[in-house]
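Record minuted for completeness.

…
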Amino acid sequence: MHQLMRRFFGTQGSKNDAKSRLKLLLVHDAIDLTPAEMEAMKAEVIEVMSKYISLDRSEVDFRLERHEGEIALVSNVPVRRVTARAG
């Protein structure tokens, strides 16, 4: 019975996931970027970075986070190799 209740109502992990999603929504609302605009920005940043480095586009992660009252764009970009040097 206990396992059925956990499956129906979720676990602590799902509570934390929901909390994280809510924080993300609040940050996006604060900067007034739609998900489509966020994806467009991500695509443009990846395009510029691709001029200088080889990267796996499927592994790139962009997100907005709030730190000490400020909003930060946090990214994780696995770099395979440098392809060009800035002049």
